[in-house]
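Listing S7. Sequence submitted for prediction.
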Amino acid sequence: MKPLYIPQIRQATGSKLEITVNDAIEGLETLTPVRGEMSIIHHLSYLEVNATVETIATLVCHRCLKHYNHRLQVDTQELIWLEDPAPDPEERSDSQQGDLSETLSPQGYFDPLNWLYEQLSLATPLQQICGDACEGVEPTLAQTTPVLDSRWSELAALKQQLNGGNEEMN
């Protein structure tokens, strides 16, 4: 799926595009293609993007480090404002200074696959745990005798001499 030229979305019937999604998204490690429905509606000053998609991703458990499959599902809507960016950040109005909304140029492009990548990335769980019964990595027993770096042997000998001298004084 290629990026969409925003003025062409406006020229579509009812200023609306309906897209059936069945694509692999570059950069997103999934077992199945991303499948679902997406609609983009042009409302003169903004785009309304709706998507209901799902895929299966292979994640790594943060407790036991095993790979497991996880169903990623997204049912979301986003409004993307259409306005030409100000060339100088100081020229932006006060209402835009702290605005965290997405904006695109009215004469620019909207990339549906990139947008879906972002939405699916946000849907990926922060705590990746393979299951409720996951106990984590089995701790290994520490070595009883420390392995000494040969470069420290002189210091170890000096320490031994000092410890031996202290015992004689008692």
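Caption to Listing S7: primary sequence and predicted structure tokens for the chain studied. The chain has four helices and seven strands. The chain has a mean pLDDT of 83.
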